[in-house]
Amino acid sequence: MMDERLPLGCEAAFEDVHAEHLSVQSPGIVALRTCGEGMLLFTVHGSVVVETRRGEVVLRPNEAFLCAPARAELGIRGVENAELYLLRFRQGRPRRGAPRIRLDVPDHVTVLRPGRLTSLLRRLVDEARQPAAARAVLHHLVVLALCELARSSLAGDAAQQKEAVLENIASRVDAFIAAHYHEPIGTPDIARELHYNPDYLERAYRSERRMSIREAIHARRIKEAAAQLLLQRGKGVAEIAALCGYTDPGYFRRVFKRATNMTPHGWRLLNSSALRRPVGIGAGIHE
Amino acid sequence: MTVTFEVGASVEALNAGLFVSPGFGTHAERIIDSYELIYVAQGRLDMFEENRSFALLRNQTLLLSPGRRHGGLLPYPPDVNFYWVHFRVRGSAGAFPCMSVPKVATIRNPDSMTELFCRFISDQESGTLDPVSAGHLVSLMLCAIGEETRGTDGRRAAQVAVDDHAALADKVQTYIEAHYPDAISTSSIAAAMRYNPDYLERVFRARTNVSILDALHQKRIGMARVLLHTEAGKNINEIAFQCGYTDPGYFRRMFKRVTGLTPREFRTLYARTHINTH
């Protein structure tokens, strides 16, 4: 079968990538590493002291330290039992004229999303262990790890972390609605499916999205109906209602009217001109 | 203090999503000015590009090219869902070494492919996806489906010679792929294949650098990583059971050992998703 050929071969700029997952015992076990080019340290648990030529840096849990290429060697000393990832790489020369972009990375930062960085570093450890590790894969993973550090220096508010749990719940509700809006679903079904108490789920959802789950289901159905009314002009309003989860066309009309101030038929007429783009209520096609 | 790097920007990622079949409709027929990569997570998808048709099954990818007419051949089956991403390539084909990417490929590690899409989509939806990450996430997807070719002559990486031991190790791997949800072990695999367990273990380890048991854990945990993202309705014990672990506590320990995260932490990594149904 024929392949597509994409000019991406100029990319591999990070080379000689080594990744390790280390346990440092307290007290005073020293791991000495030569920092030939670039090195990234990330502490998952516990604290370590990094001794560089310029002095000592204390790395606390969830902190990352980036050793710039110029510095020579450094020691790692455990303050308490610590678990850390250590990534070494060399920045090769990109090809002349290859598309590239500047990436500013802080050299010492509290990582905003430690799980994401852990996931990347773990994959690097696994990939680097392979006898025939693909250079390009290692390079892209190093870039992604550096991006995680770069984003951590931008507006790292703790409130964002706290909301993550509720946001996760609300997102799962949204995803469930998006996949099942055309079926007869209600809040109890979603709660049962996601293993939450219905009242808790309702509260969590409302605090994140400022609307009830019921309202969110209607919003999704009406949005889809608005799109389908325009996409499937051959189908009647009752048929469109059924496709979007409404078994009672009269009820569908009432809900549609309440949401859009238009009847389904009126909405279709308003957008019937081929020259006109659909207006309002986000009826655009996603892709 | 900051350190400045110059990193490649060959891939410009546009947007991505997860398509979930509503049980009706057909993929629109159109010509777009970007590449589109489709990864079928479940079900079957029938597509065409120009005059070639593609019947895509679970874990298969399709790379659609800019400027060519593509569309759906059949209405969406009720169970199909697929990830999609649009991207452009900045470098010119004559100037740089090319990567050969097959139009259609079967993904051997669905967990890493699923995770790449989840990572992309979650950041895209929370408005925190930076162009560097986006481009390199797509590059990793392309690495997973293609193989890098050195130089512009399109010469492929040398194929590893296939001998008897390699074939036997592959057989073990195939057996694991087929039976990982069942209660299997090194000895039961050896018994089923009619080999001495120690011999089989030695051959497998010489070829793959891991033990048969480790390979089994990797397969099971890899499956769990996919299910934790795609089966929002299942709790962690159910997923453990589905992947062949009868003891959820043991599953949690193995998951942490293999991925560095607990199953719960892993599930909440990529909170947001973008689902479209037409």
**Mean of pLDDT of chain A:** 81
String of helices and strands of chain B: EEEEEEEEEEHHEHHHHHHHE
Supply Rg of chain B: 21 Å
Report the span from N to C terminus of chain B: 47 Å
Q: Strand sequence of the main sheet of chain A, in spatial order?
A: 2-9-4-7-11
Number of strands of chain B: 12
List the helices and strands and how they pair.
The complex is a heterodimer of chains A (287) and B (278).
Chain A: E1 3-6, E2 14-24, E3 30-34, E4 38-45, E5 48-52, E6 55-59, E7 63-67, E8 73-78, E9 82-91, E10 100-106, E11 108-110, H1 114-129, H2 135-152, H3 158-180, H4 187-194, H5 198-209, H6 213-231, H7 237-243, H8 249-260, H9 264-270
Antiparallel strand pairs in A: 2-9, 3-8, 4-7, 4-9, 5-6, 5-8, 7-11
Helix pairs in contact in A: 1-2, 3-5, 3-6, 6-9
Chain B: E1 2-8, E2 11-20, E3 35-42, E4 45-49, E5 52-56, E6 60-64, E7 70-72, E8 81-89, E9 99-102, E10 104-106, H1 110-125, H2 131-145, E11 147-148, H3 164-179, H4 186-193, H5 197-208, H6 212-230, H7 236-242, H8 248-259, H9 263-267, E12 275-276
Parallel strand pairs in B: 2-12
Antiparallel strand pairs in B: 2-8, 3-6, 3-8, 4-5, 4-7, 6-10, 9-11
Helix pairs in contact in B: 1-2, 1-6, 3-5, 3-6, 6-8
Question: Can you give a write-up of this model?
Answer:
The complex is a heterodimer of chains A (287) and B (278). Chain A is α+β, with helices and mostly antiparallel strands and 287 residues long. Chain A contains nine helices and eleven strands. In chain A, strand 5 and strand 6 form a beta hairpin. Mean pLDDT of chain A is 81; it is low at 279-287. By secondary structure, chain B is an alpha+beta fold. Chain B contains nine helices and twelve strands. Chain B has helices at residues 110-125, 131-145, 164-179, 186-193, 197-208, 212-230, 236-242, 248-259, 263-267; strands at 2-8, 11-20, 35-42, 45-49, 52-56, 60-64, 70-72, 81-89, 99-102, 104-106, 147-148, 275-276. In chain B, strands 10-6-3-8-2-12 form a six-stranded mixed sheet. Chain B has a three-stranded antiparallel sheet with strand order 5-4-7, with no helix packed on it. In chain B, helix 1 (110-125) runs parallel beside helix 6. The radius of gyration of chain B is 21 Å and the shape is globular. Mean pLDDT of chain B is 86; it is low at 148-161.
